[in-house]
Specification:
Helix content: 40-55%
Structural class: alpha/beta
CATH superfamily of the largest domain: Bacterial OB-fold
Shape: elongated
Strand order of the largest sheet: 4-5-6-9-8
Number of domains: 3
Strand content: 15-25%
Order of helices and strands: HHHEEHHHEHEEHHEEEE
CATH topology of the largest domain: OB fold (Dihydrolipoamide Acetyltransferase, E2P)
CATH architecture of the largest domain: Beta Barrel
Distance between the termini: 100 Å
Largest sheet: 5 strands, mixed, barrel
Radius of gyration: 35 Å
Length: 307
C-alpha cells in the first residue's frame, strides 16, 4: 500500500475510535449522532446486558453531572432525519435519566457517608471528653457541682424504665431522673413522682393522630400495629409514676440545702436501686414502685423544669 494510503487508513481508524467512544477512557460527548442513534436502537442481548451497567463503554457510576449535560445536549442537537432517530433518541434520553439517577444516588450516598463519618468522629470526641470528665470527677480532680456531674461520675441509667416496670430483684445499679417531691413518708423517706411535661404529651398525641390517619388510609396490619403502639405510648405518657427516695447521712445536696427541700418542688436525683415497695393508687389498685438510696439531690437546669 502506498504511504499516502497508509496514512489515510491510520487517520480513519483513529477517527473511528474517537467517534465511537471506544474503551472506558473515552470521554462523554464524543459519539456522533449516528452512533448515538444506533446505540439506542441496538436490540442485541449482549448490548442490553452491557447497557445495564455502562453507557458507551463507560461505567454509569463514572459519569459526572457535566458528562450527562454534554451527552444530553449532543443528543438533542441530532437531526431527526438521522437514520434510526425515532428508535434511538428516546432510548438515549432514557439512558441519560438512568445515568443521572445513578449519579444522584451515588452523590447522596457519598454525602450521607461523609455526614455519618463526621457524626461518628464528633461522637467519638464527645465520648472521650465525657470519659475524661468522669475520671476527673472520680479522682477528685474535678468537684461534683451539678446533678449532671453526679450522673456522669456514676454513669447513671435513666430511672424511667424501673419506675414504669420495677425489676423483680433490684439490681443495685445507680439511676438518675428528675422528680417532683410528692409526699414525705418519714424523716429519711420521700415519695417522688414523675410526670411527662405537657409539651411531651402533646407530641405523643400528634404522633398518635398521624399514625391513626396512616392506618385508616392504608388499612394494612403493619400500619394498624404502629397505630396501636403509638396509643400505648400515649397512655404511658399520661400516667404518673412513683418512686421512693431514701436519704442517708451520705446523701449530698447540690445547689440546695437539705432543710430547704419543699413538697411540690422538682429536683434531680442520683441514687442506688435497693428495694421495691407496694402502694395503692387512686383506682385502689396495688402497684409497685422502686426504692432508691439517694446519693445526690440537685437543682435542675432551668430549661428542664416543667412547672
Amino acid at each position: 500500500m502506498e504511504k499516502g494510503g497508509c496514512m489515510r487508513l491510520f487517520a480513519l481508524s483513529a477517527l473511528l475510535i474517537v467517534s465511537t467512544g471506544a474503551g472506558a477512557q473515552g470521554t462523554p460527548g464524543e459519539p456522533t449522532c449516528a452512533e448515538l442513534m444506533a446505540y439506542g436502537a441496538d436490540r442485541s442481548p449482549d448490548y442490553r446486558e452491557e447497557a445495564k451497567s455502562s453507557f458507551f463503554g463507560k461505567p454509569l457510576a463514572e459519569y459526572s453531572p457535566n458528562d450527562i449535560v454534554a451527552i444530553r445536549s449532543r443528543t438533542s442537537q441530532c437531526d431527526p432525519r438521522t437514520p434510526l432517530y425515532s428508535e434511538g433518541y428516546g432510548f438515549v434520553m432514557q439512558k441519560l435519566d438512568e445515568v443521572r439517577r445513578v449519579r444522584l444516588r451515588l452523590d447522596t450516598d457519598k454525602q450521607r457517608a461523609g455526614e455519618q463519618k463526621r457524626a461518628d468522629v464528633a461522637k467519638s470526641e464527645q465520648d472521650k471528653q465525657k470519659e475524661l470528665e468522669r475520671q476527673q470527677l472520680k479522682s477528685g480532680e474535678k468537684m461534683v457541682s451539678t446533678i449532671e456531674d453526679a450522673s456522669l461520675m456514676y454513669d447513671a441509667k435513666g430511672a424511667f424504665d424501673i419506675m414504669k416496670a420495677p425489676l423483680l430483684r433490684p439490681d443495685g445499679a445507680v439511676y438518675s431522673s428528675r422528680i417532683e417531691l410528692y409526699r414525705q413518708d418519714g424523716a429519711d423517706s420521700i415519695n417522688g413522682r414523675f410526670q411527662f411535661p405537657p409539651a411531651a404529651i402533646a407530641n405523643f398525641e400528634f404522633i398518635a393522630r398521624t399514625a391513626g390517619m396512616v392506618a385508616r388510609n392504608k388499612g394494612d396490619a403493619e400500619s394498624q400495629k404502629l397505630y396501636q403502639d403509638t396509643l400505648d405510648d400515649l397512655r404511658s405518657a399520661k400516667r404518673t409514676y412513683y418512686v421512693y427516695l431514701k436519704t442517708t447521712k451520705q446523701t449530698k445536696y447540690l445547689g440546695i440545702a437539705p432543710e430547704r427541700l419543699r413538697l411540690g418542688e422538682e429536683l434531680g436525683f442520683v441514687g442506688k436501686y435497693i428495694a421495691n415497695r407496694q402502694y395503692t393508687d387512686s383506682n385502689n389498685e396495688v402497684r409497685t414502685a422502686p426504692v432508691l438510696e439517694v446519693l445526690y439531690f440537685g437543682v435542675l437546669p432551668q430549661k428542664t423544669k416543667t412547672r
